[in-house]
């Protein structure tokens, strides 16, 4: 019963947040800070409705004042509510083109200045990536990417795709990893307290002076750091349980 009531409340919240987000987007279309505000609009009420306790340690992310590429692990559709809590100022994200067909959310996502990629069309995807690189270099706007490209369902991080790291090297901006504990397998939405989640950002990884030949090692190093961080948070949560 509790799960059903929560899902009903979340459906209402999703629609209301979509309407409010659309109003914000129409009021100032493509403003690079729309994503942060909309992320909070979805996240804060949802965390309260779902009774998810979130502990964050993201000083390295919030203290960074210039453009960067933010890479995060991608577990489930609930990432919108969990990771939405820590999206920093002037940050947009990259998503699938199909998102624009999601009622309310898709139109809001577009108006918030996020980048929609047509992964089935290599030429259009490459153009979008070039545009995004220009955004990093000239508009002081950061890009949030899920480099796995799909959900890992709370298991180990999947192999990374190249796009985020190519952008960072091309623009000469650092990469900041953001890690969420493995919550997808552990939250229990049919209980009053659904679960505990930790989010931690790691120190910025510089890319200045790197070339595309350095790309494979950069990806491996970043993935290894993130997996180590996630494992440590999982162990910490297990000890506290």
What labels describe this entry?
seven-stranded mixed sheet; Glycerol-3-phosphate (1)-acyltransferase; 15% strand; alpha/beta; globular; 241 residues; 46% helix
Description:
With 241 residues, the chain is of the alpha/beta class. The protein is built from 8 helices and 7 strands, in the order ααβαβαβαβαβαββα. It has a 7-stranded mixed beta sheet, sandwiched between helices. α5 links the parallel β3 and β4. α6 packs across α7. The protein is globular and about 55 Å long. Pfam families: Acyltransferase. It comes from Pseudomonas taeanensis MS-3. Belongs to the 1-acyl-sn-glycerol-3-phosphate acyltransferase family.
Kindly estimate the percentage of residues that lie in beta strands according to DSSP. 5-15%
Q: What's the number of domains? A: 1
Total helix count? Answer: 8
* Net shape: globular
Instruction: Kindly provide the radius of gyration, computed on alpha-carbon positions and rounded to a whole number of angstroms.
Output: 18 Å
**Mean pLDDT score:** 90
By secondary-structure content and strand pairing, the structural class works out as alpha/beta
Helix content bin:
40-55%
Q: What is the CATH fold-level name?
A: Glycerol-3-phosphate (1)-acyltransferase
Number of strands: 7
Q: What ranges have pLDDT less than 50 throughout 5 or more consecutive residues?
A: none
Distance between the termini: 25 Å
CATH architecture: 3-Layer(aba) Sandwich
H/E element order: HHEHEHEHEHEHEEH
What does the largest sheet look like?
7 strands, mixed
Under CATH at level 1, the class stands as Alpha Beta
> Strand arrangement, largest sheet?
1-7-6-2-5-3-4
